[in-house]
Design brief:
single chain; about 260 residues; mainly alpha; 12 helices; about 0% strand
Length: about 260
């Protein structure tokens, strides 16, 4: 005679870990700022990243449009040129008519580059994703998917959205256009307070020591810890190590401009 199946006891029920409900991409975006581990852990379930990227595109275009209206693209190009002494000297040596045409072209290029920046940023993210994926797989020896690594980079970049919103607010509030540049529009980094004419290297280096950049780097390390078995300390070394390398390379290249 078959026996009836036994019902699980209360102790057996309590031993089963509760399943965490899946997060929507909207919830992931919010949690990136208030509970990042929840967002990055959920990426193991689904590495979808389109919602934060669309938000980045919308805010980026709003930033570029506002800058164009409140500052003007030619003025932005002129301000940027002032941070590059060699290029500024070449421009000043040109005849007035040629200089005016060159500034008009520089203004148009600034406008096109600004609106195209999300596509350029996506390409940069793909390259960085490949670098971090290879580092985690080969150097750290952890199992992780490229899709999850790429999604971490997208979500970890959300502090940049907050930075762009603050820039838009400052422009609408009447911030001076005389020193505004697309590359360094907010006083959240050391380079903002340095004179690039004194040292292009230190200006470029200081511009990377930014509150929002550091926030992004820390989020990236948290994300790598959540999607893999890599230790938090190892993740921080990997992320900040690559950041230091690229910062030194870019700062050295700035000496050529």
């Amino acid at each position: 005679m078959a026996t009836a199946p036994l019902s699980p006891t209360n102790s057996e029920i309590s031993a089963v870990p509760p399943q965490t409900p899946p997060l929507s991409q909207g919830a992931r975006i919010v949690n990136t700022f208030i509970a990042p581990s929840k967002t990055f852990t959920d990426l193991r379930r689904s590495a979808a990243w389109w919602a934060p990227f669309i938000l980045m595109v919308i805010v980026s275009w709003g930033f570029v449009y506002t800058a164009g209206q409140k500052v003007g693209f030619e003025k932005i190009a002129e301000n940027q040129m002032q941070t590059q002494p060699k290029q500024q000297a070449r421009m000043e040596s040109m005849p007035a008519a040629d200089r005016e045409r060159a500034m008009q072209m520089a203004g148009k290029f600034t406008s096109v580059f600004g609106y195209a920046f999300p596509a350029i940023q996506l390409l940069i993210m793909l390259i960085l994703g490949a670098i971090f994926f290879a580092t985690l797989k080969m150097a750290a020896g952890v199992e992780v998917s490229f899709g999850a690594v790429f999604a971490v980079l997208i979500y970890a970049g959300l502090p940049g959205v907050l930075r762009a919103i603050l820039v838009v607010i400052s422009l609408l509030a009447g911030a001076s256009p005389d020193s505004f540049t697309m590359q360094n529009p907010l006083g959240s980094n050391i380079g903002y307070y340095l004179n690039p004419a004194d040292s292009r290297f230190l200006y470029s280096l200081g511009s990377q020591i930014d509150i929002f950049m550091i926030w992004t780097l820390v989020l990236t390390a948290i994300g790598f810890t959540c999607i893999s078995k890599v230790k938090r300390g190892t993740a921080l070394v990997i992320v900040f190590g690559w950041w230091a390398f690229f910062t030194l390379v870019l700062s050295s290249l700035a000496l050529l401009s």
